[in-house]
Design a protein that fits this description.
Two copies of one chain form a homodimer. Chain A has ten helices and twelve strands. The first copy, chain A, is α/β, with parallel strands linked by helices. The first copy, chain A, has two domains: 2-180, HUPs (Rossmann fold, 3-Layer(aba) Sandwich), CATH 3.40.50.620; 193-283, 2-Layer Sandwich (Pantoate--beta-alanine Ligase, Chain: A,domain 2), CATH 3.30.1300.10. In chain A, strand 6, helix 7 (158-171) and strand 7 form a beta-alpha-beta unit. Chain A starts with a strand and ends with a strand.
């Protein structure tokens, strides 16, 4: 397995592979990999085939963090990431630094961004105003450097996957977007690099995000009529906040295609939520 | 020569050429071609080589026109464009319609844009606030559809070429940008599709854009000291407005790398200007 740190080297390799008809599968990550990432890499491996190339990028992208967020303390462990990538079947780790990805940014020599202005406005986009602009920009850059045939994203970041799918469609990137299922701990907590922040008392309380989705599913299943979204939201919020460390950021019911919020909740409605456990912000989502 | 109207067909052709190692040279245009465009196509032909493919896109991009601008009356003549492309050595004309380029835009199903936030702010960006966002977005889309090795732009749109060069660098598009010299009528007027709008009394007056650049060059050459930009601007503005049909939009002296305006003008300073002749807005630029 090869580690590439230079943008120009990575792009040259990718162009050569493309020219030889080698399929490229791509998994963009911020590192500190877990079983969720491993499942994405394995999926990319199946897509690329045994003669293809699987590239995993590891880059903590400053542009998608807000000024008050956890950029500086975001967890990193390259040696462990390297082992997991190798075991999962990756061929290349692309691990650039900030000077490679945003050259001259401090001196005003970086000035281009990709913005998605519809699906990105609500939920994560509302709570984290510059987040998706950072995501779409870095993913556009990575696509141009890695030149993948297919890129695999996790369903845990459901809105992110939708925003990227929209970007690819709107800007005509020649890349197939694959969204792979959320991988969970045995108690239901969605795998996330940020779970590392949770202390011993917060960790069991964090399962409340998963439990509340199950609770919403049961409510829909047990009702013969559509449920009022606002009432259900209030009930679920109260349920979460019974956990002493938990504070709800948002709970949203919406149409998974348009991301428009719905007033009534039925089977097929999508739920997404964000909650703080102490200072750690976690997200989860599911179809009801 | 082949005419392609479908985005998916164009992208499939381009991917096949790339896979076979065929070099692709690209000239994006809004049609109503003139000798300036012909020189860009010939340049693309030389870059692609005789075994390469030269693609000319013809698309009047609504996103780069403001609401009060000339989108609906922008001149079109496909048959003539076809002849000029063939004579200049193009292999493919890519001529999509709005439904191909911005599917679902009316229903909110188009929502992604590329924005350049530094070089695009002054001059054309100030006079036409949404113009460059439209330009960077369409060029990003075209690059992803046509997959060129190199794309050729005209120096007449000097700021546009710089904004696109910055976009390519920032977003890592694997495309070489070539800027080819402005082609002029024998009396100095820069070739432009919009020259068609000029009536018989405006047409001779329009040479004042070229003359004023020559006048600025002479002023720099004849001065042993740097010239005050503001004073020179006032003189040049008065010179232009001696033409009864002419009204200056802007005259700017700036550093051609940073696009920062300068206070003093010397050899090497860049000048760019926009002026209305009647209702027709023309631009030109040059190095002093």
């Amino acid at each position: 397995m090869r580690v590439v740190k230079s943008v120009s080297t990575m792009q040259r390799l990718a162009r050569n592979w493309r020219r030889r008809g080698v399929r490229i599968g791509f998994v963009p990550t911020m590192g500190y990999l877990h079983a969720g990432h491993v499942s994405l890499i394995q999926r990319a491996r199946r897509i690329a085939g045994k003669n293809g190339i699987v590239i995993v990028s590891i880059y903590v992208n400053p542009a998608q963090f807000g000024p008050a967020e956890d950029l500086s303390r975001y967890p990193r462990d390259f040696d462990r990431d390297w082992q997991l990538c190798r075991q999962a079947g990756a061929d290349v780790i692309f691990a650039p630094n900030d000077a490679q990805m945003y050259p001259g940014q401090g001196e005003g020599r970086y000035s281009t961004y990709v913005v998605e202005e519809r699906l990105s406005r609500s939920m994560e986009g509302q709570s984290r105003p510059t987040h998706f602009r950072g995501v779409t920009t870095i993913v556009a850059k990575l696509f141009n450097i890695v030149l993948p045939d297919a890129a695999v994203f996790g369903a845990k970041d459901f809105q992110q996957a939708a925003v990227i799918q929209r970007m690819v469609q709107d800007l005509n990137f020649p890349v197939k977007i694959v969204v792979a299922p959320t991988v969970r701990e045995t108690d239901g907590l969605a795998m996330s690099s940020r779970n590392k922040y949770l202390d011993a008392s917060q960790r069991p309380q964090a399962t409340v995000l998963w439990k509340v989705i199950q609770r919403a599913k049961a409510a829909v299943k047990n009702s013969s009529r559509p449920l009022a979204a606002e009432k259900l939201r209030r009930e679920l919020k109260a349920f979460i906040q019974r956990q002493p460390a938990a504070r709800v950021d948002y709970i949203q019911f919406f149409d998974a295609q348009t991301f428009e919020p719905v007033r009534t909740v039925t089977g097929g409605t999508h739920i997404a939520l964000a909650a703080f456990l102490g200072n750690t912000r976690l997200i989860d989502n599911g179809t009801l």
